Amino acid sequence: MDSFLRTVADQTVNGLVIGNIYALTAVGLALIFGVSNLINFAHGSVYLIGAYVGWVAITWLHWPFVVTLVAVALSCAAIGLVIERVGLRDLQGSARIAPLLSTIGLSFAFDQIVQLAFTANPQSFASPLPDTRWQVGGVTIGTLDVLIAAISLGVAAALFAFLRFTRLGWALRATAQDRDAAQQMGVDVNRVQQVTFALASALGGLAGLLVGLYFNTVYPTMSFQAGLKGFAANLLGGLGNVPGTVVGGLVLGLIESYGVAVLSSTYRNLFAFLVLIVVLVWRPRGMFSRERTLPPETLTGTFISNSRPVRLPPILLAAVTAFAVIIPVVLPDPYILQVLTNAWLLGLVALSVTLVTGTTGQTSLGQAGFMAIGAYSSALLTLRAGWPFELALAAAAGISAVVGTMLVLPAFRLRAHYVAIATLGIGEIVNQAILNWDSLTNGVLGLVNIPPASLFGIELVTPAGLYWGALALLTLVYLVQSRLLRSPLGRTWRALRDDDVAARAYGINLNRYKALAFSVSAAAAGLAGAFTAHMYTYINHETFTSTTSVLALTTAILGGLGNLAGAIAGSVVLTVLPELLRSWVDYRYLLYGIALLVLIRYRPQGLLGTD
Asked: Is the pTM of this model over 0.90?
């Protein structure tokens, strides 16, 4: 019993320490949401930059710890001003989804810059603090534990005093309560917004530094997990509710610590994503907010323009398709065929995005999860059940449609950015389930020796065979979705996108039609994932990541949301262009992030227009 109590006490201390760091991250998100009504997806990148600035200051420059804290806070505050200016200021008249996607583009760019500067390898981060530990009631507490608690409590107290007793703090609170009324009373809301982003980013950077010290390592991919955990803590306490967010961070830290003790460290990230989904479904406004009704918010006015989309004549489409079919004959170069095969598979995923996001108005960032479901379904059916490829591929599409829709079903009551966050969390839950379900997925080792794609017993192992196989799937999905969009079902989806209140008034069952859209979307993404698995004959939990989801959304926006031909055109551009600029291959994701920013700002309707 004593051993059990000691373990509980140790995990409680660990949970509170981690919870304090989560609270620092989440408080910044709460401040930004309160003032700008924006969920800042670039906040995790600020956290990453703070970790690396601290690592450089301590490891390379050997600065004192206090000086490092100041350097991290000032550097990240400057990054926050950049995010506010580039990602939000010029998009204030747009629907909320526009600045949200803009911050995703900034996150892509920042993360890639860090990776280019410091490589993708983790870096050891030795703490400059004395390794002193104290025994308190049978619990061991270290210097860093005390420091993290002191910084967190000190920041909370300073923030409370700032908001309660300073004129700028009053202006910030007034702006958060009613931006228009504050502006009419003479408050410079743009200045308040700048201060908010700078302050929030400074807190996020300090959290990144403390996490790097706590785990003795920093790495370029740490931003995404940190951002989602900050969202989870923020949602748990209440979006924009600073005291509630602090409590939410502590609760999340305790849940994670106890869960790791009961299961294992590989489950650490799963708890945050589960909390995220449960809170979104159960109480999307958080534990400390009475308001539960979410305002209507669609993509109308941001990406769905009144201008007519570019419609390609059927004869031109037929000619392009015919040329695509004969490319392996006239250009048999294996490298070219591999690049175009990747473009067709990305086009498949982009078609799945443009249906659910462009046509139905439900922003999805979870397509990678649907791809993973399809990939593992087809791979397991062929590996362990001995099914032929054709049957396994069809089953993978069906399984992706059913399982994907069931996973997203709880999010149907949500709107706007809440849907985006929910689908992103669902995609990560699929990823974590694959990582930890060893008996089914082989865990971190993945599945090897997956049978190659085949058609009527003929294996598609040559570049030309894989090319034609991917093109055939893309053509099939294009034709099916094109037929659906011309049907009454397609008109109903567009009605749901344009005004779901009016659609409901006309007797349309919103959940039913959302489910149908996600089913078709998940099936298309599942086909892309399944074909990818058989093409490479190996997959693991890192094959389909959130980056894939964001890339697919960027592709759909580039072509024109809701425009099927545009989705394919966007996939060709984003796949072929980096290959033409081979010397820029290391800058691929930086270019994707910049492309997303430019599109949202200057060409939200895409290359071929929205439909």
From this structure: no
